[in-house]
Structures are given as C-alpha cells and as structure tokens.
Design brief:
Layout (H helix, E strand, L loop, with lengths): L1 H25 L14 E4 L2 E4 L4 E7 L2 E6 L5 H10 L7 E2 L3 E4 L5 H38 L5 H34 L2
Antiparallel strand pairs: 1-2, 3-4, 4-6, 5-6
Function: Responsible for the release of ribosomes from messenger RNA at the termination of protein biosynthesis. May increase the efficiency of translation by recycling ribosomes from one round of translation to another.
GO cellular component, one term: cytosol
Main location: cytoplasm
C-alpha cells in the first residue's frame, strides 16, 4: 500500500512539473516558437477550435511565425483571433499570415521573469499539497493499524525525499527559463 501511495505521489508531482513546463511555453522569450499560439482559439463553422487545427504554424525566421491556413477563407478569422488574444501580436495577412514578434525590452523581460517565478511557485505549492495529502493517507493507514509507526515514519521520510527532488526540478527549470528570458 505504501509503495502505491509513493508511486501515486510521484505521478501527481510529475504532472505538476509538466503543467509548469507548459505554462513556461507560453512565456515569450523573444524568439519565434509555434507554441506561443497554442491557446489561440479561432471560430470555425460555428465553434471555437485551436488555431493549430485550422492552420500550419511554422517559424519563418527567429522573430517571425508563418501561419498557413488549411482553407483560404480562414485568413481573416485567424488574423482577428490573434489580434484579440492577449499576446500583443499584430499579424500581417495576405495568402499566408506572418506574425512578427516584437523585440523584448528590459522591462518586458523582467515582467516575463515575474510570470515565470509565479508559475514555479504555483508548481511548488501543488507539489507540497500533494505531499500533505499523501502524508495524511499514510497517517490514516497507521491509525487503522494497517501499518506500524516505524513504517509511517519511513514512508514520511521517503515522501519528503520525493518532494525535495521535484522542488529541485522546479528550481532548475525556473533558472533555465530565467536565463533564456534574459538572453538578448
């Protein structure tokens, strides 16, 4: 039972880390990357669908994204969806759509770092909450006399080691993202 709880703990913590990495993907670094537009929704025959389902998004050069809609009639809708998103981008439309990414100022880079730190802190809080839940489950097992006090203490130490490992991973990813943001 304790091993199952440890595996569940590690799986849930890994998901928190992956969630943070996805959030980091949305934090702009000044280089063009298709994942910047991942959450842009485009109206398509009466329903909103992700941009990546109605167009091919590629990198034209280091500061420009190239969007090729699968249907020519979608150019206007895609352009409008990008403009209305909170990304602050101004696409240039023709048969294809080019999205130039503005150069990041020092202030913008600092703000992006704050966003990255907030995401990292959210991930750490989630990891600690998972630890708390698993330790409560282990304590419950001990109360029901399914495990001994020694097993409970040992499991608690193991859960803490797992938690420390994931918190360290979060810190490593944050440091890498901050370094990436500060590159000119």
């Amino acid at each position: 039972m304790i091993n199952d709880l440890k595996k569940d703990c590690e799986t849930r913590m890994r998901k928190s880390l992956e969630s943070m990495e996805q959030a980091f993907g949305k934090v702009r670094t000044g280089r063009a990357h298709p994942s910047i537009l991942k959450d842009v929704m485009v109206p398509y025959y009466g329903s909103d669908v992700p941009l990546l389902q109605v167009a091919n998004v590629s990198v034209d050069d280091s500061r420009t994204l190239l969007i090729q809609p699968y249907e020519r009639t979608m150019v206007g809708a895609i352009d409008k969806a990008i403009r209305n998103s909170d990304l602050g981008l101004n696409p240039i439309s023709a048969d294809v759509i080019r999205v130039p990414l503005p150069a990041l100022t020092e202030e913008t880079r600092r703000n992006m770092q704050k966003v990255a730190r907030a995401e990292a802190e959210n991930a750490k809080v989630a990891i600690r909450n998972i630890r708390r839940d698993v330790l409560a489950d282990i304590k419950e097992l001990q109360k029901e006399k399914e495990i001994s006090e020694d097993d409970e203490r040992k499991a608690g130490e193991d859960i803490q080691k797992i938690t420390d490992k994931f918190v360290t991973e979060v810190d490593k990813h944050l440091a890498a993202k901050e370094a990436e943001l500060m590159q000119v």
